[in-house]
Design brief:
This protein is α+β, with helices and mostly antiparallel strands and 185 residues long. The chain is built from 4 helices and 9 strands. The strands form 2 sheets. Strands 1, 2, 3, 4, 5 and 9 form a 6-stranded mixed beta sheet that branches. A hairpin with a 3-residue loop joins strand 1 (20-26) and strand 2 (30-34). The chain is globular and about 40 Å long. Mean pLDDT is 87; it is low at 177-185.
């Protein structure tokens, strides 16, 4: 997992390889970059095994081209939380009521996950509504970005907004522009 993350040390490296930003920067969770062409192979199979070399998303400390990689995210469509990585420490999670929009090569998240947003509100934005998402787990495997809450913790408290806080807008994204976010350098 670590060597895979280090193949894309900056956002510029990820975007050059075809990764695109999904949503915006979220304090504690970073900026997730996904590759549509690579995503199908990133999901775990029915065996619940994880291929550490094939993450669903790369996680960055911001959205500027020079923002550094901090970790990875893996996904699974299994009906129960997958076995995933060796040992009992990977904390798989799901989100509910997620609306995802696709516009001009960008992936948007117009409403907060796990909120009471309705499918009709998502439909009005021509979005894809997911009552429940696939299983996901973060892996904070990049040296210098190990989460104090654990390698597989949902959030890494070292990932803050550009102003050093966790202040967010109503959707859960940093309320200040994250294009200049270079926290944790």
């Amino acid at each position: 997992a670590r060597s895979t993350a280090m193949q894309y040390p900056t956002v510029a490296d990820a975007t050059k390889a075809g990764y695109i930003l999904a949503g915006q920067f979220t304090p504690g969770a970073g900026a997730h970059y996904v590759s549509i062409s690579r995503s199908a192979g990133s999901y775990t199979s029915h065996s619940s095994a994880v291929d550490p070399a094939n993450p669903l998303a790369l996680i960055y400390q911001g959205t500027a081209p020079t923002s550094r990689v901090t970790g990875l995210m893996y996904g699974s469509f299994t009906t129960t939380a997958p076995e995933g990585f060796a040992g009992p420490n990977d904390r798989w999670h799901r989100h509910t009521n997620l609306c995802i929009t696709f516009d001009n090569g960008k992936i948007g998240v117009p409403f907060p996950p796990d909120s009471d947003v309705k499918k009709s509100a998502c439909d009005a934005l021509h979005g894809q509504f997911m009552r429940e998402t696939l299983w996901m787990v973060h892996a904070w495997v990049v040296p210098g970005w190990e989460s104090p809450k654990g390698v597989f913790s949902h959030e890494n408290p070292d990932l803050t907004c550009a102003d050093g806080t966790m202040k967010t807008d109503a959707v859960g994204f940093c309320w200040l522009s994250v294009k200049t976010s270079l926290v944790g350098m």
